[in-house]
Specification:
By secondary structure, the protein is of the alpha+beta class. It has a single domain (1-249), classed as ApbE-like domains (T-fold). It has helices at 4-20, 58-79, 87-92, 104-119, 129-134, 149-156, 186-200, 295-308, 310-318; strands spanning 22-24, 35-42, 45-52, 164-167, 170-173, 206-210, 213-217, 226-231, 241-247, 249-256, 261-264, 267-270, 285-292, 324-331, 334-339, 347-350. The strands form four sheets. It has an eight-stranded antiparallel sheet. The longest helix is centred in the first third of the chain and has 22 residues, at 58-79.
Length: 351
């Protein structure tokens, strides 16, 4: 059961994401704009779909909206820990050593999760669900106090993707306590799926945002690349823009400590946990934006890089073809920006 406090928290988060964790910014003359947009709620946040180059009749817009809603329902039914009978919830409650059959979409996400877990040296780990819940950023609601060392140590023994196998018959976990939480990859997957769905319906110029994770295809309504703003990572501050990125294909995602966090007498905590310590990652790094070939990849990598930190994360990105990143660290009341070798090729404006 989600507490009223947690529901209000998710509503505020959704509004912030809609206003713009990452914003689409295009400003063509009004007469040149041809676009159709619709939005809704999913995964505890909001989504936005924009199809450029066409003004669709209401009947076609409604049809596409229904297709999008159905796709998102299927993804949630597979991967939402907030749905008691979802695939992931049933896997989390399943016994050990027995294959748990999973749907094709769940398998697709898990294949990428295993791949990126290895490439990121374990800094992206989707088995942190017990610790995420312990810190109050999961489906169990906020705790009254920060967890203690004994609680954290006990749950650290229950995590680790190396303790789960993906077989032809499904997922197999080595102990019943192992659980999955795909919140650091599922939104990106969903954005990609919606972009593919619309492409298959014949629409090649599309923009999808789900809670700040983006998948884009083709041109914006002005006929140029989609213009996407990266925000100043201020906690509860003005939503000023640092840079405007141009994209025509691929995915983009941002991970940071400035949107989903809590300050209480026990101190500051946020939702990105270090797999080795079981605690929120606390450093000068406050935001990582990743551009990749697809949003699912960008989503997971941005989480892993946030855990790594700027120096190690930058070295990792510069060794990976097709991945670029912008790291933003707090520095004496301001911010320091560190970009990977090819990131600035995507920058249209620095503000």
């Amino acid at each position: 059961m989600i507490s009223n406090e947690h529901k209000r928290f998710l509503t505020v988060l959704g509004i912030l994401a809609l206003i713009g964790l990452v914003l689409s910014l295009f400003k063509p003359p009004v007469e040149s704009v041809l676009a159709t947009s619709f939005d809704g709620r999913t995964m505890g946040t909001y989504y936005i779909v924009t199809i450029a180059g066409v003004e669709l009749p209401d009947a076609e817009t409604d049809r596409l909206h229904r297709l999008v809603e159905a796709e998102l329902r299927d993804i949630n039914q597979a991967m939402s820990t907030y749905i008691p009978d979802s695939e992931i919830s049933r896997f989390n409650a399943a016994p050990a050593a027995e294959p748990f059959a999973i749907s094709p979409s769940f398998r697709q996400v898990m294949e990428r999760a295993f791949d990126l877990h290895e490439k990121l040296n374990g800094y992206f780990d989707p088995t942190l669900s017990p610790l995420i819940n312990l810190w109050g950023f999961g489906h169990t609601g906020a705790p009254e106090h920060a967890p203690g060392e004994e609680e954290i140590a006990r749950l650290l023994d229950r995590v680790g993707l190396h303790r789960i196998q993906l077989t032809d018959d499904g997922l197999v976990k080595e102990s019943p306590e192992l659980e999955l939480n795909l919140s650091a990859i599922a939104k990106g997957f969903a954005a990609d799926q919606l972009a593919d769905l619309l492409f298959n319906e014949g629409y090649v110029n599309v923009f999808i945002e789900i809670g700040g994770d983006l998948a884009v295809r083709g041109k914006n309504p002005a006929g140029g690349p989609w213009r996407i703003g990266i925000q100043v990572p201020e906690r509860d501050g003005p939503e000023d823009i640092l840079k405007i990125i141009g994209m025509e294909s691929g995915g983009m995602a941002t991970s940071g400590d400035y949107r989903i966090y809590r300050e209480n007498p026990d101190g500051f905590s946020h939702h990105i946990l270090h797999p080795h310590t079981g605690r929120p990652v606390l450093s000068t790094l406050t935001s990582v934006t990743v551009i990749a070939k697809d949003c699912m990849t960008a989503d997971a990598i941005s989480t892993g890089l946030f855990v790594m930190g700027t120096e190690a994360g930058l070295n990792w990105v510069n060794s990976q073809p097709g991945v670029e990143a912008l790291f933003i660290d707090r520095d004496n009341g301001g911010f320091t920006r560190t970009a990977s070798e090819g990131f600035n090729r995507h920058v249209l404006e620095s503000l």
